[in-house]
Amino acid sequence: TAALAALEAALRLSPGNQDVVVAMGAVRMLFYLLHSDGHAEDLYAGALRVAACLCESNANSRLAVLSAGLAERSVRLVERFRFVGPVAQGHCRLVQSLLVGMKAEEKSRLEAAEAFATVYQIFDTSPPTASTLEAMATLEQLSSVDVALQTEAACDGGGLFVCAQLVEPLTQT
Question: Known SUPFAM superfamilies for this protein (predicted)?
Fold first, then answer.
């Protein structure tokens, strides 16, 4: 997990590093890591965060991550870990990164992978935790990129009333 954290730091907001790492086969490595069983939750979460960093500011990386099916695998891992914890947070970050500069085809792939529905599920089933906050940030971004997604986030995502109920206990100290 330390190696993934170092890679994540090197990739954050660096399109040049993202290009190099993708060219070196990082997406393939992430594919195999996310598809292998028996790892700790933190390792899967780290891999999802690296995938998210690859997509932050690089359209080619986003396409590579989508084409490799990492969004689909992310959904399965979130289901496996019951929609809470570091994997749920990693999924939300991946979806947020994939939303940047999203095209219609990419939106269709994310919808087919149930990536958005999984964010709603994280938001809906998680007690107020870091996973919930990450899902809320993702819902906010969803609603800012596309009118159809805005409506979907308001309806399927639980609406503003539920947001307010979940945020209130987190903001009280």
Answer: ARM repeat (SSF48371)
